[in-house]
Amino acid sequence: MHNAKNRYLRLCYFIYAFCFYTISYSQEKNDLWLESLLRSKASPLLLNILNHPDSFQYQIIYTEINRDRNNQPHFTQHYFHVDANRYFNPASTVKLPTALVALEKINELASKGVNKYTTMLTDSSFSGQSVVSIDSSASNRLPSIAQYIKKIFLVSDNDAYNRLYEFDGQELLNKRIWEKGYTNTRIVRRFVPMTEEENRHTNSIRFIRNDSLVYQQPPAYCSIPFDYSKQILVGDGYYNRYDSLIKAPMDFTRHNNLPLESLQKMLQTVLFPASVKLTECFHISNEDEQFLLQYLSEYPSESHYPKYDTTEYFDSYTKFFLFKSGKQKIPSHIRIFNKPGWSYGYLTDAAYIVDFNSKTEFMISAVIYVNRDGILNDDKYEYTEIGYPFFKEIGEIIYQYDKNRKRKYFPNLDRFKFNYQ
Q1: What is the C-alpha to C-alpha distance for residues 168 and 173, in angstroms, rounded to an integer?
Q2: pLDDT of residue 326
Q3: What is the overall mean pLDDT for the chain?
């Protein structure tokens, strides 16, 4: 009896110790294999970054994809300093879930005679809001959900995001995201100076066909509370909206938040919807999936509506991995399906990269912070010197590894081929 009791106590202690270890150390995910691969191939610049994780606040995810005999993908995740509790400013990456919720919502309005191509006129219903009645980038010069989504993925257009945010409504947008399991995510701001109260209010919107009103969405107000209990301070100082230097860290406590792993999972729901739980998926049509895949991977030079000046919006403008830092022409056999973001010294990208010649495919996501002087909003970030080379190099290392590793079955990649012309 005594021995049985001792065994029971040892078992309880083991369970307690295991739980304590899991709670204490499971926040950050690390894979020694991925670290070893990157270090073994790293240039002095990359090695310096890898040696200073606190300064550069980098996180890296590499997802190995193996197909079975039925072409079904199976995923193996590799992490390096990935921590959902370590804040980074997600910048334009929040445009991905905002667009997904917009498509989900517009499909629910099909019975009203509305779809993503229907003319969408935005009215002003509260302070700080603006009216939109034309879109010079569209072939018919009229705004629509489809046209906004194109601009979001082609060049990461901020106004297009603001309009989808307003169509979604702050409350519905966040509730939909949380219902799908992305509980650490919040999207509470447009990309234009507004107060917290102004961002809770979203515009009245009218859908028009042949000059007739098809459906009117009333203005909305978000009444749900957000968890701002964890204070988030970044940097040593910042310039406020009046260009005055404030000698204190910038407070991001009430800003948007989107952890890297959640961002990649959202992208995966579009790329491989059958690979994730149904509850994690955004409910969009097969046609919507193909629409998204085209514009996640299309280059500005391939777009006619919108039409872009390719000296400013070059083909790798939003493609950080492999190509961004050099602005070189991207080979036709490689396509990158991705959503990046850049702001306040943070660079982020989540991507699916395919090489149709070598039948290579993998997912890769990363974030880095490059702000040597510690001052935010001074436009002095080391994007070009450190940030873009970081993405280019880790992309190349993973690409070369993945291209040369052994595969039992090569993928059929027809789903990801488009006629961009």
Answers
A1: 6
A2: 62
A3: 93
d(CA 261, CA 360): 22
Residue type, 256: N
Given a cut of 60, whether residue 124 has pLDDT beyond it is yes
User: 91, 86, 59, 87: which is closest to 343 by C-alpha?
Assistant: 91
**1 in any annotated domain:** no
Cis preceding linkage at 306, omega within 30: yes
Packing angle of the helix pair 170-179, 95-108 (nearest 10 deg): 100
Residue 5 domain-assigned? Answer: no
Structure tokens of 191?
């990309």
Q: Is residue 2 part of a domain?
A: no
| CA dist., res. 66 & res. 51, Å (int) | 31
Query: Measured in whole angstroms, how far is the alpha carbon of residue 388 from the centre of its chain?
Result: 17
Helix axis angle, 145-155 relative to 95-108, nearest 10°? 160
**Residue 169, pLDDT above cutoff 50:** yes
Flag whether 12 is in a domain: no
Q: What is the pTM of this model?
A: 0.92
**DSSP letters along 66-86, please?**
EE-TT--EEEEEEEESEETTS
Q: Report the distance separating Cα 48 and Cα 14, nearest Å.
A: 39
Nearest 5°: CA angle at 256, between 394 and 372?
Answer: 50
The CATH number covering residue 193 comes to 3.40.710.10
How far is it, in rounded angstroms, from Cα 141 to Cα 134?
6
Reduce the DSSP state of residue 215 to 3 states and report it. Answer: strand
Domain range for 182: 28-416
Q: Which two tokens stand for residue 59?
A: 């996180």
| pLDDT (mean) for 170-184 | 97
Buried b (16+ CB within 10 A) or exposed e, 56-83: bbbbbbbbbbebeeeeebeeeebbbbbb
Tell me the backbone φ, ψ of residue 131, rounded to 5 degrees: -95, 140
Distance (Å, whole) CA 201 – CA 123: 12
Q: Supply the pLDDT for residue 328.
A: 73
Provide the residue type at 374 as one letter: G
β-pairing verdict for 245-246 and 237-239: antiparallel
Per the structure, the count of domains in the chain is 1
- Indicate the pLDDT class of residue 213, thresholds 50, 70 and 90: very high
Strands (E), 212-318: 212-217, 220-221, 233-234, 237-239, 245-246, 250-251
Average pLDDT over residues 16-42: 72
Percent of the chain having pLDDT more than 70? 93
